[in-house]
Specification:
Layout lengths: L2 H14 L7 H14 L3 H14 L6 H15 L3 H14 L6 H14 L4 H14 L6 H14 L3 H14 L6 H15 L2 H14 L3 H17 L3 H11 L6 H17 L1
Helix pairs in contact: 2-3, 3-4, 4-5, 4-6, 5-6, 6-7, 6-8, 7-8, 8-9, 9-10, 10-11, 11-12, 12-13, 13-14
Length: 262
């Protein structure tokens, strides 16, 4: 091997021997992650906040802003600071993979903390329309349905819930969405459709309490349609699994009188 070749080989080996943490932004992000794991929140937050300031071009800056917002929101309950972090992420790094989650978190704060249903719906619709492949879309849709419920917009609420059920049937939120959709129909006075949806739920559930709840919904829908005898049969089928046996007994007694009088 010539002296020049040996020198080049030595240079390559020296480069390979450099520590993996030669990226200072990565080193600081990993330090923040470790601090977070051991509940050293102030240290974690300090490092997360410093990354976009000191290393704005780093690929860790968007992730640090997302973590910063989550810490402000979930631990410190400083929702204004959380929104500021999420906005900074969306504005400064619009192409970052973390943006849709940041926008969803904004919607969640507007919905659950500020009860600003219009702002929540706007945020969550942005996620729905601009990031169709977002991995947490089922969560975003469920929050969006709640935002429409808060605006008393039951038609949009129902449409979003059905989208969730149809597109994400394996989601842990799918069954809850089925319940919410059925109740939304009941609230709208769409009794035939509510009856249909509660019957679907009754077919799917295996727990006695949930079956009793579904039968109650069916009975309510049947009453709304004027089918009193059929409604009475559903109330009677609830049995001891009902949530309030005393109220159920009163309901059955009143309905028996109505059926007899009809």
């Amino acid at each position: 091997m010539t002296r020049g070749a040996a020198g080049r080989l030595l240079a390559v080996l020296l480069l390979l021997a450099l520590p993996a943490c030669a990226d200072p932004a990565r080193e600081r992000f990993e330090r923040a992650e470790k601090a977070l794991l051991v509940q050293k929140m102030e240290a974690a937050l300090a490092d997360y906040r410093s990354i976009p300031r000191d290393f704005p071009q780093s690929r860790y800056a968007p992730a640090a802003l997302l973590r910063q917002g989550d810490l402000f929101g979930s631990f410190y309950r400083n929702y204004a600071a959380a929104l500021e972090a999420y906005d900074s992420l969306s504005f400064n790094y619009p192409q970052a993979a973390e943006v849709p989650r940041a926008v969803m978190r904004k919607g969640e704060i507007h919905l659950l903390q500020f009860f600003d249903y219009a702002a929540a719906a706007a945020d969550l619709e942005l996620v729905r329309k601009q990031y169709p492949r977002f991995e947490a879309m089922d969560e975003a849709l469920f929050l969006l349905a709640k935002a429409y419920a808060g605006q008393k917009d039951s038609a949009r609420q129902y449409a979003v819930l059905i989208e969730l059920v149809e597109k994400y049937p394996d989601s842990p939120r799918a069954m809850e969405a089925r319940w919410a959709a059925a109740y939304a129909l009941l609230a709208q006075g769409n009794f035939a459709e509510a009856d249909r949806d509660f019957r679907k739920i009754l077919y799917l559930v295996t727990d006695g309490k949930q079956a009793a709840r579904a039968r109650w919904g069916i009975a309510q829908a049947l009453e709304g349609q004027g089918e009193l005898a059929a409604a009475l049969d559903q109330y009677l089928a609830i049995g001891p699994d009902g949530e309030d046996p005393a109220y159920l007994a009163e309901k059955i007694a009143r309905l028996k009188k109505r059926v007899k009088a009809s």
